[in-house]
Amino acid sequence: MVVLELNYQKKVGLPGYSSHSCGLTVTTEVSSLNDVGAQVSDLYRRLQDSVDREIRETGWLPNNGNMEAVNGTSSSSKGIQHGANGNTVYRNGTSWACSEKQRGLIERIVDENDINWEDLHQLAQARFSKPIIALNKLEASGLIDEMLEKYGRGGAVNGNGRGHFRSRGRSVRA
Amino acid sequence: MIAMDTLSPPGTERKAWVFDHLSASSIKDYLGCPLRFFFSRVEGLPQPTSPALHLGKVVHAGIEWLNHRQWRGEQFNEADLVAFYRLAFERLQAEEGPVHYADDAAREKSMETGERVLLAFARSDLYQEAGRPRGVEVSASMLVPGHEDLRLLGYIDRVDGKNRPTDYKTCAATPNVDLEMFLHRIQLIAYEELVEAATNEPCPGSEVIFLVKTKIPKIIRAQAPRTTDQERERFWTLVSTVIEGVQAERYHPQPGQHCAWCAFRAECSVWSGGER
User: Fold this and answer.
1) pTM attached to this predicted model
2) Is B143 helix (H, G, I), strand (E, B) or coil?
3) Given an 8 Å threshold on Cβ–Cβ distance, is A168 in contact with B95?
4) A172, B155: Cβ pair inside 8 Å?
5) CA-nearest residue of chain A to B71?
6) Complex ipTM, two decimals?
7) Chain B hits for A136, Cβ within 8 Å
8) What's the alpha-carbon Rg for chain B, to the nearest Å?
9) Mean pLDDT across chain A, nearest whole number?
10) How far apart are CA B125 and CA A159, in angstroms?
11) Are the Cβ atoms of B151 and A164 closer than 8 angstroms?
C-alpha cells in the first residue's frame, strides 16, 4: 500500500490590510505506485475546488479602521484583486479613470523600478483618498510626477516645475 | 508674409517651427501683438530676462514648493523655505539668465523683496487655510475642438479640492483687480476648460492670487465665477482667430502701451510686411 498525503492551501489579501487563508490536507492510500499520478491529479482538483469555493466567504473584516463588518465575497471592487500575502494586483482589462498613456507610464515606472503595487496604492490613497485606478487625469498627473521625482529624476530639489530644477509636471492629456 | 531671413539675427539657425499646440499665454500673446508672437514663439528670438521677470519666476518656484508641502501633508519651517528660495534665485539665474541688475546692491534688494513676499504668503491665512490641493503645477492639454492635431496646453499653478484653478501673479504695486481679472480672463477660461477636461468635473470658477511686492507685501485674492456658455464660446472663437492667423502666417504689429516693454521694438521697426 502507498500512502498519499496532499495539502492544498491558498491565502488572499483583503481590504483593510487583512488577509485570510484556507488549507486542506487529505491522506489516502493507493494500492500501487501506478495509481499515484491519477490519484494525485484527482485529489488536487478536489482540494482546489473545495478551497476556492469556501475561501470566497470572507466573514468579518475591518473596514477603514471603523471595525465594521464587511460581509461577502473577496473584494474585487474597483478592479483590484488581492493576491497572496496581501499584494494588490490589478486585473488585466480593468479600465482606469486616467488616460491610457498615463496608465502605461505608471505601469512602466512600476516595472522599471520594481515598485510594490500595494505601496503605490497606499500613496494614491494618502494623496487622493482613492485607489490608483480611480484617479482622474489630473490626479494621475500628480501621482506620476511624484513617482518620477522619487524614482526617475532624483529628489534633490523639490517643488519646482516649469523647467525650474526639474522638468515640467507630467502632461495630462484629455 | 515676412521676409524672415532679414529679421533673424546673423548666425541664427532658424529651427523648423511645428504648430501642434497653443498655450493660454501664446493665445494672449498673439492677440496682443501678432508680430511679437512671431518674434518670440516662431523665430524664437532671445529676450533678455528683466529683474522683475526673474523675481516673479523665483517667487513662483517658492509658492510651488509651499503648495507641494501642503499636497503631501508635510510640515515645514521657514528656514527651509528661505533656503529653497535663495537656491532657486541663484540657480534660475544661472539656468535662464543673464539677468541685468544695475549692480550687486540692486540684486540683493531684489532677492530680499522676493523673500519678504514669499514669507508673507506662507504666513497668510490664504495659504494656511487653503487645504490640500488637488494638483500642483499641473500640465494639462486637450484637443482643440475641430482640430485633430492641435492641442490647447496650460500649466496650472494649483487646483484646489473643489476643482478651482489658481494662478499666481507678482506685481510691483497694488493692482486694479477688476482690470487685471478682465485682462487674465482668456487664461483663466483656458484653465477651467483644461481642468474640466482632465477631471470630468465642473469648475466652480477660477482665481488669481496677486502678490504685491510692496515694503509690507500684500496678498490679494480675486475670484472669478464659473465661466458662462457665452464666455466659452467667446474663448473658442478667439482661439480660432489665433489658429487662422498663425496658419495664414498673418504676423503684423499691433502698437499699444505694451510696446513700452517689448523686447523686439528694433526688429519691429524694420518690418515692412513683405510678400509671400
Assistant:
1) 0.73
2) strand
3) no
4) no
5) A127
6) 0.79
7) 198-201
8) 20
9) 72
10) 21
11) no
A171-173 and B135-143 strand pairing: parallel
> For A142, which of B88, B91, B138 is closest by C-beta distance?
B138
Closest CB to B65 among A160, A173, A174: A160
Record: contact B136-A136, CB cut-off 8 A: no
Q: How far apart are CA B235 and CA B140, in angstroms?
A: 17
Share of chain B above pLDDT 70, in %: 92
What is the residue type of A27?
T
Band of pLDDT at residue B4, cut at 50, 70 and 90: very low
pLDDT of the residue at A32: 86
Provide the residue count of chain B. 276
Which positions 87-126 of A are in contact with B (Cβ < 8 Å)? 126
Tell me the C-alpha distance between B205 and B226, whole Å.
4
Distance between CA B133 and CA B141 in Å, rounded?
Answer: 19
- Collapsing DSSP states into helix, strand and coil, what is residue B211? strand
Instruction: Determine whether the interchain pair B67/A174 forms a contact, defined as Cβ–Cβ distance below 8 Å.
Output: no
pLDDT digits (tens, 9 = 90+) for A99-140: 999 999 999 999 999 999 999 999 999 899 899 999 999 999
Q: HSE of B29 in the Cβ direction (CA atoms, 13 Å)?
A: 16
